[in-house]
Amino acid sequence: MAPLHDRLPRQRNVLLLSESLDSTSRDTGFALLTPAETAATRVLVISYLDTPADWLDRWADRVGDLPTAVRLVTVGEMAAGDDDWQSAATGNVEVTRASPTDLTGVGIAVSDTLSAWAETDDRVVVCVDSVTTMLQYAPLATVFRFLHTICRRFASVEALAHFHLDPTAHDDQTVARLTQLFDSLVRVEDGDVTLRA
Predict the structure, then answer these.
(1) What's the pLDDT at 170?
(2) Could you say which of 2.40.10.340, 3.40.1280.10, 3.40.50.300, 1.10.238.10 is the CATH number of the domain covering 10-196?
(3) First vs last Cα of the chain: how many Å apart?
(4) What is the rounded CA–CA span in Å between residue 26 and residue 101?
């Protein structure tokens, strides 16, 4: 079977449903970030869960060499608590900090990144980790509007973007409402990965 990344169309927003700390979920997320030609890839990460150093360590463990460019937008406690966050911003890695209560600021960081990368033909891949944590800082209606906006922005540059959501942390109605924003659904459950494209 083809790698998960290759089974999705080039332009796709994907909801990755799994328990937040599930290792298979992290592996699946990195699989979505790594097309065959990683060297011609630009990676945008919006992380509420990892410091820049932690995320880069995970990339090194799971993937190896860094892609053409990495932009890490660290949000919330991870941003505030990482005293050496600037040390991760070396070479082809840029780091931006954002407040979890300021989705507008997060959106501006996304827009600035995509605009800066617009002149290249490199593949853009995106990870948002996680929508579950985002919902701890903003109401569902606000998060829904934000996700709708950035999904359209990612589609406009033909990015493959995936968004982590822990379905066990939300009621069925919330999960159903958010699911309608996405083109594809990847579910990780008991170590198995299923794709609904």
Answers:
(1) 97
(2) 3.40.50.300
(3) 15
(4) 25
Please give the sequence-ordered ranges of beta strands (E in DSSP) within 76-190, or none if there are none: 93-98, 123-129, 160-165, 184-189
**Burial zone of 43 (CB within 10 Å; 0-12 exposed, 13-18 middle, 19+ buried):** buried
Beta bridge partners, 46, equal: 73, 128
For residue range 163-172, what is the model confidence (pLDDT) as tens digits? 999 999 999 9
Which tokens hold the place of 37?
A: 């030609």
Query: In which residue ranges of the chain is pLDDT below 70?
Result: 1-11, 20, 36-39, 77-89
pTM for the predicted model, two decimal places: 0.91
Which residue do the tokens 């990015």 mark?
159
